[in-house]
Amino acid sequence: MSLKFTSKDVHGIYNIIPTPATQDAGRWDCEDSVDYEETARMVNMLIDNHVDAIMTNGTFGEGATLTETEWYKFNEKVIETANGRVPIFVGATTLNTRDTIRRSKDAMRMGATGLFLGRPMWVEMDEDTIVGFYSDVAEALPDAPVIIYDNPEAFKGKLTPKTYSKLAQIPNIIASKYISVGPQYLADIAAAGDNIVIMPLDSDWYYAWKWAPDKAKAIWTGSGNCGMAPLLMLKKAIETGDEVTAKTITNELREAYKTLFPHGSFHEFSKYNIPLEKIRFDAAGLVKAGPCRPPYNHIPEEFAEGARIVGRKYAELQKKYSKLL
């Protein structure tokens, strides 16, 4: 079977959503922690504001802390609400290949466009193990497009150009959620070729576009949950070649994000990724992300306040650019 959605279809703003939580979600004895009404409202808000695609159950989407029933019902609600209006890539990562394949089959049966898959993270994986994992998924689900997740903190290592070149030979893999546009970026996009779209973070889009304009087709972000307007203006600037506006918005995003990283450290951020992101979404005021699920529901107040500051700063950017769209 051939893929209905390929790397040629990947473009624009791919927003990762949280899994909205009920007020008792932080308790170990909560039976169903998902706020389904807020889930539908959030999905509709993003689609109404021109998001290009939605991804679920990454780190701050709490894919690791939902029960199987919660995971299924949440993604069912997302897909049902989207109703084919935008592509939906469901996060199905687990600690092993067989459970990941089972979840992935459920997601595709529900009507997902494709999968958002990190790799099992209990033990660090070498190149052959990484390629073997994604090859097994592709064999089990030959018609399922896959967006992979290249996060060196979460998955105990950065994908190398050599690994990208091997992953690019797996037809299912169409894109990669990419953490930082740095020295290795050009080597990675060269290795990925046309088969895998390397998607940088929103605040790196301008630099990716400057370095490799033909390759910077899409970004990943969580900030659509705080408002789509700055992202839409950035997208328009890049599409029209407006370098001044693109750089201005990029600098504004980077300034707004500063206090999201405790002591300026991505490593420290990664320890508190879930509460930091959910707190900033709540502070921006458009999405009610709600409490974090255990065990990742503890955070120093100093760090939490930093996330609130980010949410408030982004809300100002949303207000500013909403008037200009």
Describe this structure as you would to a colleague.
The chain has 325 residues and is an alpha/beta fold. The chain has a domain at 7-226: Alpha-Beta Barrel (TIM Barrel). It is 45% helix and 10% strand. It is built from twelve helices and eight strands. Strands 7-6-5-4-3-2-1-8 form an eight-stranded parallel β-sheet. Strand 4, helix 4 (127-140) and strand 5 form a beta-alpha-beta unit. Helix 4 (127-140) packs parallel to helix 5 and helix 5 (161-167) packs parallel to helix 6. The chain is globular, with a radius of gyration of 18 Å. The termini are far apart. The mean pLDDT is 97.
Write a brief structural summary:
With about 325 residues, the chain is of the alpha/beta class. Helix content is about 45%, strand content about 10%.
Q: What integer is the average pLDDT?
A: 97
String of helices and strands: EHEHEHEHEHEHEHEHHHHH
Briefly note the structural class of the backbone. Answer: alpha/beta
Output the CATH homologous superfamily of the domain at 7-226: Aldolase class I
Taken as a percent bin, the fraction of beta residues is 5-15%
Helical content class: 40-55%
CATH class of the domain at 7-226: Alpha Beta
Computed CA radius of gyration, to the nearest angstrom: 18 Å
Question: Which stretches of 5+ consecutive residues score pLDDT under 50?
Answer: none
Name the shape in a single word: globular
Enumerate the strands of the largest sheet in spatial order, edge to edge or round the barrel: 7-6-5-4-3-2-1-8
